[in-house]
Amino acid sequence: MNKLKKIPVVKKELLFPFIIITSLFALWGIANDLTNPMVSAFKKVMPELSNVQASLVQFAFYFGYFFMALPAALFIRKYSYKSGIILGLCLYAIGAFLFYPAAANEEFNYFLISLWVITCGLAFLETTSNPLILALGDKETATQRLNLAQAFNPIGSLTGMIIAQVFVIGALRSDDYTAEAYNALSSEELAAIRENDLGVISVPYIALGVLVLVIMGIIIATKMPKTAEEDKMSLSESFKKLFANKNYLQGVLSQAFYVGAQIMCWTYIFQYVDNLNITNGTEYTATYFNIAAMISFLCGRWIGTALMKKINPSRLLMLFGVGGVVMCAGAILLPGIAGLLSLVGISVFMSIMFPTIYGIALKDMGDEAKIGSAGLVMAIVGGALMPVAQGAILDWGGDGFADVQVLGFIPEVNFSFILPLICLAVVALYGYASYKRNLKN
What we know:
Structural class: mainly alpha
Low-confidence stretches: none
Transmembrane segments: 14-31, 51-76, 83-102, 146-172, 203-222, 248-273, 285-304, 316-334, 340-362, 374-393, 413-433
Distance between the termini: 16 Å
Strand order of the largest sheet: 1-2
CATH topology of the largest domain: Growth Hormone, Chain: A
Number of helices: 23
Radius of gyration: 22 Å
GO molecular function, one term: fucose:proton symporter activity
Shape: globular
Helix content: over 70%
CATH class of the largest domain: Mainly Alpha
CATH superfamily of the largest domain: MFS general substrate transporter like domains
Protein name: L-fucose:H+ symporter permease
Pfam families: MFS_1
Number of strands: 2
Membrane topology: Multi-pass membrane protein
């Protein structure tokens, strides 16, 4: 334990490149949490969409990670980390600008394609940035260093949430009507509102595309550190070592379940709040609770990073996983504001999971780490699949889910959070298993 205190998390000579690379973590945080509320936004603008159809926003967004992570790793192996970052930023900008023709054509599928292209770019950024941060210093502090870098991701996420509330959800004309009043409008009025609101949805993404191009220019002009020699291991050897690594394979599975839990909690908090407003007559604003969840997430990330100086990362992951399960149970079983605060509290315990699983799964790897990183980024596909499953639970009772009770007393929306509970239980078990392996070694 004393050894960890003496080794710097980031050496002075690597501080500047560490800061530059860490800025990318905030950049993809903006995209992630600008997109989460879009499930609810598209459902309001296009009421003909079911919950499952609206959740395809998340499917399109997070499927890009699965599709592009391995090609990104192969690209980085052949060229360089910097080339991977630049290509990722280029795809990010293209996807953002595609929102303009999508809004002009008022076609939901075009929006899905735009989101998919954005995340193809994000797959490059995450496949590159995470192992690069791990390599910028001593391997003993690698997991702590990645947690430090990932602590800036929620800052971008908070920015995305605020943009979503102020410039999208708060500006939607379709949100100014009750369902009955909206359906009573003439076809011309509905068409005008639809055109306006789809334009509103597209503007932040187009602005984000401009920001990405500016950052790409800065990256091009920056000299990146050389952190590793040319790969000595063949691709087949890399895959052979990875598939024989039990700790790694379990890490990929845990990462998929974690990301699924995160996206479900941050996406369906909007439906959770809507249900409370309908059943209890409250007037809560879901985005404010989502922002509170992100602030909790940010605080948990900083606290968790500090705790890793004294507590083994695997053990801490297990403890945080158990805490997340308890909070999920509260979101399901507790009525009113108590359940909602439990849902917000889940974010505290999810905070360290992504970088900690990442660091544990890639521990002591050599040349196979780049391909291994791709597998952990591909695991983000959990964020594409799990929300669709939760949307299917919500569709059991139709759109009028406020009146549906499971087991006679649990609202259908609350019950749907059984899926995040299961996911976080898997993460807790991975923390326990990897901690036990550490003790044996």
